[in-house]
Amino acid sequence: MQQGTLMRKVKSKSWKKQRYFKLQDDCMTIWYQSKRTGKIESAFSISDVETVREGHQSEVLQSLAEEFPPERCFTIVFYGRRGNLDLIASSAEEAQCWVQGLRQLIEPKSFPLTPALVSCTWIRDWFQKADKNKDGRMNFKEVQRLLKMMNVDMNEDHALRLFQAADKSESGTLEGEEFVLFYKALTQREEVLSLFQDFSEDGKKLTLLELVDFLRQEQLEDEGTEELAMELIDKYEPSETARARHALSADGFLMYLCSPEGSIFNPRHRALWQDMSQPLCHYFISSSHNTYLIEDQIRGQSSIEGYIRALKRGCRCLEVDCWDGPNGEPMVYHGHTFTSKIPFREVVSTLGKASWENSSSPPPRMGASPCSSHPQRWAQSTATLDIAALPGRGVPTSPSPTLQELKHKILLKGKKIGRLEDMLDGPGDEAPDVSDDDNGAEAEEERRRVKVVLGMVHPSRGTKHSPALQKDKESLAQALSDCVVYCKSVSFRGFQEARSHSRPSEISSLSEAKARKLMRDAGNEFVRHNTWQLTRIYPSGMRTDSSNYSPQEMWNVGCQIVALNFQTAGTEMDLCDGLFSQNGRCGYVIKPPFMRDKETLFNPSDPGSREGPGPVTLTIQVISGQQLPKVANSKDGAVIDPLVRVEIHGVPADQARQETKYIENNGFNPRWDETLQFQLHVPELALVRFVVEDYDKTSRNDFVGQFTLAFANIKPGYRHIHLLSKDGTSIPPSSLFVHIRITE
């Protein structure tokens, strides 16, 4: 990668400043300085970077598309809520140099990072933050301050002994590599060493047979165990001599336990592993609400970034609300509010680029609300989308196609028109069913959306058009209607009515309140309905702050499209990410067999109605934590008092939570050694959420980290849980060490 590259930093169409960007010698830090003043303006760590996007993949760069070619443009995306960095290089070659170089540093697939290397880069990152005078050395007082920054509250005498042992030069200071030695002594894992010695006859190594015993007895690996043991030794043993002798040292054992193979998440379930030949209604589908919004529902910003983030997160059902804009340009925003607007063509362009980045993923679905804009604008904007439509004016040849059959297609959810005059002049017949306790504004918004879907009618019913324009609109309304094949929107008028008159290719939208009422009154009928037809759930109109409802209760009755506000972090999005983190993150998870049977007796309020094996017992021994992060905005020198809470989210009978005691002043290597136990009546629907909090006896505990996964993806045995932030991003090297047992 080039050093000191001059590039344009872009914030808006009119704000383009030239800055020098430089990768420091540590290959972990990038700083940039003003070309005019020479002053260093900012710096960021490679560990802060989530991904790099090439071309015009931001609103700002799209607005400059005519001025700068995509080959010179790229966007650096950071973890969390930090704003993206849009850059324009002086040449395509220079842009590629930075893009490929950054990807080499941040992507594990192209730049393999062992647990040891992750740890070392993290240490050096902290070292540079504390090395104020940049002389590459730290005295004992500086080390003590750094330990506080790293969430370590250690006895001074013990810290001094470790410091002196690492000071090989006897200079009274630690240089970079000496600090790494100090850190390794600090982080020695007694609980892992004890486990290692339980299976090692000489206490120094695990022979191949000893490792096989450990894998079978503790990790419950029962297939190809010897082959697996050989693979682990070859992959994680740092000593060439030990590898040659087919042995695993204590360091290699720790590296294995910290690896994907030692994770609580079954690595086989990370890839696409489920049956993808079922009809759409047999899957839970990752779905977003008002995808274009990245803030609140009233005054928030609309941005294509909302679509990019949702698709990157595995979302497969997106919402696009279109309204008339200037000069006949369709605009996307939240109608009747003060949210900002984005051109419809930019949304379509983004969907065309981002939808197929994971080629193994089945199709995304798009709910669109066309307005009364000029028909040619619509035709031009959507020409690049591969919409799933069949011959015969949109009549499906199969009532319920499989995901595999619809691969690489986009499905439009909307209203189908019979007689055109019914669409243009008659009353709408597919407004969502709205219960008495629904918010009026949200109900009206949903009616508006559905009423104008594919109808080309502005919400103002009295609008008059010239005969020529009206003919254009009628023609396009029919053409768009023909694109709606498998997701025809219909009003929900009860389960009996649906059985008698509805089709598998139709879909109903229900508010969260209406869905809850149906659960209470007719839980089994709701489950049966969802075995053959799609149901979409949307948030209450009272959630103007973009808060979320619990998706779990909707999944419990088999609702497929449970729309959430992806921009709002919290338990609800943790559950969504936890469910859809499996199966290649394709956004589709197959429902349990008893939720795909039209004659099922299952009712989530009566777990005994589930067909299949009896309840299972989940036993979790929470052993220790490693390098837990400090609480955001905490005071200098503050050290957390961590506790672990385990939550079960599932059917009502399985909902439970238990927590450990808190450990005072130790966020670095706390030790709990506590056992928690849960009985699961319907494990197929259960999600397990691990939460670490900073205990506070006078106020609410502070969030530290979490990890959520479906029960079906848990690997038993001694496992590490790699924690995620509030935004769902990784926070290496923070983890929990647990022992898992599952019994019937």
Commentary on this structure:
One of its GO terms (cellular component) is endoplasmic reticulum. It is an enzyme of class 3 (hydrolase). It is found in: Cytoplasm; Endoplasmic reticulum; Membrane; Nucleus. Residues 480-596 form the PI-PLC Y-box domain. This protein is an alpha+beta fold and 744 residues long. Helices cover 29% and strands 22% of the residues. It has 21 helices and 30 strands. The strands form seven sheets. A seven-stranded antiparallel sheet has the order 4-3-2-1-7-6-5, covered by helices on one side. Strands 18-19-20-21-12-22 form a six-stranded mixed sheet. Strand 18 (488-489), helix 18 and strand 19 form a beta-alpha-beta unit.
> What do the pLDDT scores average to?
82
Based on DSSP secondary structure assignment, what is the total number of beta strands?
30
Silhouette: globular
The assigned CATH architecture of the largest domain is Alpha-Beta Barrel
What share of the residues does DSSP label as strand, in percent? 15-25%
Number of helices: 21
**How many domains would you count in the coordinates?**
5
What is the CATH topology of the largest domain? TIM Barrel
Structural class: alpha+beta
What's the CATH class of the largest domain, please?
A: Alpha Beta
Major β-sheet annotation: 7 strands, antiparallel
Lateral strand order in the biggest sheet = 4-3-2-1-7-6-5
> If you compute it from the alpha carbons, what radius of gyration comes out, rounded to the nearest whole angstrom?
28 Å
Low-confidence stretches: 109-114, 390-396, 419-432, 441-465
Distance between the termini: 56 Å
Q: Approximately how much helix is present in the residues?
A: 25-40%
According to CATH, the homologous superfamily of the largest domain is Phosphatidylinositol (PI) phosphodiesterase
